[in-house]
Amino acid sequence: MTYIKHLKDHVDQEITLKGWVYNYRSSGSLVFVEMRDGTGLTQCVVAKDDVSEEAWEGATSLKQESSLEVTGKVKEDERSIGGYEIHVSDVKVVQIAENYPITPKEHGVEFLMNNRHLWLRSQRQWAAMRVRNEIIYAIHNFFQGRDFVQMDSPIFTGNAAEGSTTLFETDYFEDKAYLAQTGQLYGEAMAMAHGLIYTFGPTFRAEKSKTRRHLTEFWMIEPEMAYYDLEMNMDLAEDMIKAIVKAVLENRQKELEILERDASVLEKVVSDSFERMTYTEAVDILKSDETAQMLDDMAESRRQEKMDLEKEEEKIKKERGSAKKWRKAQIDQRIKDISARVDQIEEDLRNIPTWKESARNFEWGNDFGGSDETVLMKQFDVPLIVTHWPAEIKAFYMKRDETDKLALGMDILAPEGYGEIVGGSQREDDLETLKERIEEEELDQEVFEWYLDLRRFGSVPHSGYGLGLERTVSWLCGLSHVRETVPFPRMMGRLHP
Ligand code: 4AD
Ligand code: MG
């Protein structure tokens, strides 16, 4: 058996492929099967005269997603998908599929989500999962290459670490357990044993809002480093993100093309230094006249673009009547694209006044909302690291600066409106201060005694952060919603399939 991705090594040879029908077309004595085998797509051409009667019967009974084995000669063909074509000498049907629900026509999101188990076979979904896999591999590579020890932190936990409002509670024999919101506290314990560690596992938050950035089950990568301060923490996170983006650019070109992801914006992330500023500086930018002006300009250019598109649409619609068949198809496609873009522009035009208002009236001390992050990141084309946050809005475990008002936290915002991908901090390492924080937050000190032990026995300055895997996939693939970044997304209102 040969895989489609290896066709280049088999030009003019006879090979056998095993896979599924991605697309099917027949015309008289020819059948064209666009076949997929998990590694790629290729066109198989079956000519009635070249195959046995049985094979021809099989070939003509195929339908979308039927499974089959194909034997044939590999021919180079630039025009063909993937650059090769199989001149078929034999076809063996494995199973004739029933009427496949996902057709090349457009489907609504709900329908696709209900058929997620099948939707995963579509090209874009396939490409996104390959990028996800590449990111996972790059992360392990990065940390293992720096002698970090991977640790598995527990999923059943007894303490809340990221606020009590998003806890999933479950029975645990006579007790209650929570699904882990983070592995961090356990990571800190492990870091005191190994120095440099990272967790890579599922985390759970009962997010009651439906947004394009929130899942209830998501994968988080949490390194924790003994003797690292905030600065070293930032440097590590920047190096890690660069390594991930670099790996995707180098190894997943084809997938980025399928996703129509503009690689040049990602190349900048690898080559340029990230922006760094304090929360207060970021707030100043948000509230500035320049930002208001930038949003006005943006609205103006969107309006102009919309007018231009509408003019173009009018023009090609007129041309359509007398156009040849191929040109008609081209025009129809263009009209579809224009309509999608206009929808997007209209959404932006509805949003911009709200963004502007929210940015202008932003009050120091609040957390950034999704729209504030978007507006802020309109001004940068590399990730932005925001540090020194108002302590009140950050977690109890964060160390504070000398004013005692600012937490030594760092959030990393992705460019292009993909939002916060990393949250981290230097940790409070003083026993008494940490006890006070636990009391202030009205947390149960008893369940944190083990965590306090880390400050009783050889406490050291230490830092760490958490990278959200799905948000990273979403950003690198250019996907507008995290539901397409994980095989079976879990969100409010989505538990099946
Ligand atoms: O900022 P967060 O809440 O930080 C922590 O959990 C720390 N304990 C991490 C640490 O310092 N070890 O979450 C970290 C990242 C976010 O920046 C975001 O990328 C992702 O996790 N994240 C989510 N991703 C998808 N859906 C959700 N509901 C998410 N909540 C957080
Ligand atoms: Mg956060």
Written account of the structure:
This protein folds into three domains: 4-95, OB fold (Dihydrolipoamide Acetyltransferase, E2P), CATH 2.40.50.140; 113-279 and 362-484, BirA Bifunctional Protein, domain 2 (2-Layer Sandwich), CATH 3.30.930; 291-352. Strand 2 (30-36) and strand 3 form a beta hairpin. By secondary structure, it is of the alpha+beta class. The two termini are 32 Å apart. The strands form three sheets. The chain has an eight-stranded mixed β-sheet with strand order 6-10-11-16-15-14-13-12. It has a five-stranded mixed beta barrel with strand order 1-2-3-5-4. The protein has helices at 53-61, 109-114, 116-119, 123-145, 184-194, 230-251, 253-258, 263-271, 279-287, 289-320, 325-360, 370-377, 431-440, 449-456, 469-477; strands spanning 14-27, 30-36, 41-47, 67-76, 84-95, 149-151, 156-157, 169-172, 175-179, 196-204, 217-226, 275-278, 384-390, 406-414, 419-426, 462-468. Residues 411, 420, 423 line the site of magnesium ion. 4-amino-1,4-dioxobutan-2-aminium adenosine-5'-monophosphate binds at residues 162, 182, 184, 205, 207, 214-215, 218, 220, 222, 420-425, 464-466, 468, 470-471, 482.
Relevant terms:
497 residues, OB fold (Dihydrolipoamide Acetyltransferase, E2P), BirA Bifunctional Protein, domain 2, 16 strands, binds 4-amino-1,4-dioxobutan-2-aminium adenosine-5'-monophosphate
